[in-house]
Structures are given as structure tokens and as C-alpha cells.
């Protein structure tokens, strides 16, 4: 799959608010990313991606992409909604940084927010406030 289609799919995932639906979508899309030889020519390139998205694996897993997918899915099963959303944002950041995609409308999450918990609370208050 080409990088631009993958990024467009991830943009759609960002809109998902249901934890189980988000998790299932991340299973598939992260599997696609891991298996992509367009993004990662060699298995030696994979540790950089997992370090960027803050998922730690043992070194021997990077030699086998299918085992790596299995362990990644296992770690995703244990994540809550907040962590899944952070993972989705970091993955998007990685794809934009390393995918050679030019999109002027996208701002990296790491530069967009300084304190995400304050922004999250403000977003919720603004979303559900009465009498606007």
C-alpha cells in the first residue's frame, strides 16, 4: 500500500471515539505499516518506528515481522482509549516525518500541544458546556 493511502486511512481512524473500534482499526493499520517494505526496506529499520511510538519489544522480535505484529497486537489489547489515541497520533507523526508526504494542513501532534491533558479537559468542557 502506498504511503498516501495509509495516511488517509489514519486520518479516518482519528475520528473514531469508540475504544474497541479504534483498537481493531489500529490492529489492521499497524500490521500494514509493519509489513510495508515501502516504509521499512529492512527489518533493521523497524526499531526506530517502535521507539518513536513508544512501544518496547525485545530485540529478537525485529527479525520476524509476523511475530512483531503478534506482540504489538498483544500490547494494544492492554491499552486504554487514551493510550490508543496517543499511539494513533504518534503513528501519524511518524508517517508524516518519514513518509515524504507534504500536507500543509497537518501539524505534528508533538508541536501542536504542549500539555495534552489540559487541552483534553478544555476540549471536553467546550464540547459539553451549556448555553454557548
SSE arrangement, N to C: HHHHHHH
Model regions low in confidence, pLDDT < 50 over at least 5 residues: 106-115
Distance between the termini: 44 Å
Number of helices: 7
What structural class should be given to the helix and strand makeup? mainly alpha
Radius of gyration from CA coordinates:
16 Å
Largest sheet: none
Instruction: Please state the oligomeric state of the protein chains shown.
Output: single chain
Fraction of residues in helix: 55-70%
Q: What is the averaged pLDDT score? A: 82
Shape: globular
The fraction of residues in strands falls at under 5%
- By DSSP, the count of extended strands is 0
Total domain count: 1
Description:
The chain has 132 residues and is mostly helical. It has one domain. It is built from seven helices and no strands. The protein has helices at residues 3-13, 19-35, 46-52, 65-77, 81-98, 109-112, 116-128. The longest helix has 18 residues, at 81-98.
Brief synopsis:
By secondary structure, the protein is mainly α. The chain has helices at residues 3-13, 19-35, 46-52, 65-77, 81-98, 109-112, 116-128.
Key terms for this structure?
132 residues; mainly alpha; globular
Amino acid at each position: 500500500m502506498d504511503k498516501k493511502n495509509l495516511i488517509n486511512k489514519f486520518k479516518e481512524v482519528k475520528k473514531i471515539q469508540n475504544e474497541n473500534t479504534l483498537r481493531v482499526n489500529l490492529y489492521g493499520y499497524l500490521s500494514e505499516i509493519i509489513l510495508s517494505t515501502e516504509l521499512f526496506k529492512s527489518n533493521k529499520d523497524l526499531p526506530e518506528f517502535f521507539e518513536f511510538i513508544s512501544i518496547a519489544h525485545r530485540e529478537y522480535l525485529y527479525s520476524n515481522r509476523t511475530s512483531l505484529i503478534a506482540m504489538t497486537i498483544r500490547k494494544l489489547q492492554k491499552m486504554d482509549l487514551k493510550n490508543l489515541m496517543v499511539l494513533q497520533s504518534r503513528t501519524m507523526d511518524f508517517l508524516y516525518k518519514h513518509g515524504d508526504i507534504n500536507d500543509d494542513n497537518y501539524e505534528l501532534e508533538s508541536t501542536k500541544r504542549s500539555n495534552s491533558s489540559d487541552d483534553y479537559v478544555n476540549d471536553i468542557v467546550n464540547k459539553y458546556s451549556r448555553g454557548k
